[in-house]
Design brief:
Helix content is about 15%, strand content about 55%. It contains four helices and 18 strands.
Length: about 425
């Protein structure tokens, strides 16, 4: 553990007894509020998707190299989410089970069932809560991206509202309230183990990592300061903030510093080398609600360790050379190397440095009840490519949600979105809550 992380963790641990002692003066009685000890809910979803494929795109060649003339792909997806909890006295248990199903004629049938969350809680006093198990921490104030979500999996920018799988952690919350400009402060230490079959996809195995967050509500501004240290990933530190300037206008931001980020870059010949150094990420955004119920979310995201445009072009050239070699001699070596690089980061969402995210959502236009159209754009400002997603949402049937969405790619060759496997995507999502 680095010295800076150890100092930060020690200060947090020293502060805990002060929180517990002070909390005795700020307790209140909730015994008059009755709540059922059991909770159970679920969600079932069917999501057929149609892809219009781009046969000239690099990622198309990487995935469909054995069927280079395919024009379209139809896919059927299903999802079942079940969650339940039980609460007794100061204890509570919670679990959320997720099953994803997928079928198409390329990968055929896939099924994955896992607990997204499964943890036990104890609340010995109103200002102290302890959680142990698998859970999402949900750090960060950004809507589409969260640079400071050090102990969570990254969001899907195409669908940031979807529930995510958590990690197995031990965490606590110690909360203290005040009168004056500083209204609330809380400290949240986190233990995150990484061993075989325990968070093994988080980073280097056989390590116990430490994370923490300090939260302040100061002059009606939410502020978080957080860190992650340990041998599984390079140390990182960050902060975020959120403030309502008016009742319908909010601004937010995040900043993260990674002490030693590593990535593999390619030169024009395809030779790879490791690059190490500090990385800085930030996000700045706003949310605005107009008088006629139009919600606008605008965010700009920068990640200094993302790939440059030339680095991405070199990756696409590697795919093209590997594809040509496979077509000429059935030699998959070049494509296999490109696949490894894709999995290491080149094909991840938002792999480059600068992005602008815009979402416009209009509630019940023309007095059409339960109807919400929206338009979402993710724009790569480095190469001027974009993913544009119009959407229609209808919720007029009790517990049923119908969503029709398309995604249209805009971008030249050698641009990030221009080299995606499809030109467009159309999907229908029917979800039922119970």
């Amino acid at each position: 553990m680095k010295r800076s992380g150890l100092i930060f963790l020690t200060l947090m641990l020293l502060a805990i007894p002060l929180w517990v002692h002070a909390a005795q003066d700020y307790t209140f009685d909730l015994s008059e509020i009755e709540k059922k000890p059991y909770h159970f809910a679920g969600y079932i979803e069917a999501r057929p998707v149609f892809y219009g494929l781009d046969t000239d795109a690099a990622l198309y060649k990487l995935r469909f190299f054995d069927n280079p003339n395919r024009q379209a792909l139809a896919e059927i997806n299903g999802r079942v989410k079940l969650e339940g909890s039980y609460e007794k006295s100061i204890f509570r248990i919670f679990a959320r089970l997720n099953t994803d199903l997928q079928y198409n004629d390329h990968t055929h049938g896939l099924e994955r069932t896992t607990f997204y969350e499964a943890y036990a809680s104890a609340k010995p006093i109103t200002s102290v809560k302890i959680d142990v198990g698998k859970k999402t921490l949900k750090w960060g104030k950004g809507y589409a991206l969260n640079p400071v979500a050090f102990a969570d999996r990254p969001k899907d920018p195409d669908d940031p509202d979807q529930a995510m799988e958590g990690y197995i952690v031990a965490t606590a919350d110690f909360i203290r309230s005040f009168d004056g400009p500083l209204k609330t402060i809380s400290v949240t230490p986190v233990l995150l183990p990484v061993y075989d079959h325990v968070n093994s996809d988080f980073g280097q195995n056989n390590n116990l990592n430490f994370a923490g967050r300090l939260y302040f509500l100061f002059y009606d501004t939410d502020i978080d300061v957080m860190f992650l240290t340990g041998a599984s990933r390079p140390d990182r530190y960050g902060f975020d903030f959120s403030r309502n300037l008016t009742t319908n206008f909010e601004i937010h931001g995040e900043y993260a510093w990674i002490t030693n980020h590593r990535k593999t870059v390619l030169d024009p010949s395809g030779a790879a080398r490791q690059v190490e150094g500090e990385a800085h990420s930030f996000l700045i955004g706003l949310r605005y609600l107009t008088a006629f119920d139009l919600t606008a979310i605008v965010e700009f995201y920068h990640h200094s360790a993302g790939f440059s445009r030339d680095e991405m072009k070199n990756f696409y050239s590697l795919i093209s050379r590997g594809f040509d070699a496979y077509q000429a001699s059935d030699d998959p070596t070049g494509l296999g190397r490109a696949m490894q690089l894709a999995e290491s980061g080149y094909a991840r969402p938002n792999a480059m440095r600068n992005y602008l995210y815009v979402r416009l959502s209009q509630k019940e236009p023309f007095d059409i009840l339960y109807f919400t159209p929206s338009l979402t754009c993710m724009i790569n400002t480095d190469d001027q490519s974009a993913n544009i997603m119009p959407e229609l949402l209808y919720t007029g049937i009790t517990n049923l949600e119908l969503r029709l969405r398309a995604a249209v790619i805009a971008g030249a060759g050698d641009s990030e979105f221009g080299e995606k496997q499809n030109d467009y995507r159309i999907e229908l999502r029917a979800g039922y809550y119970f």
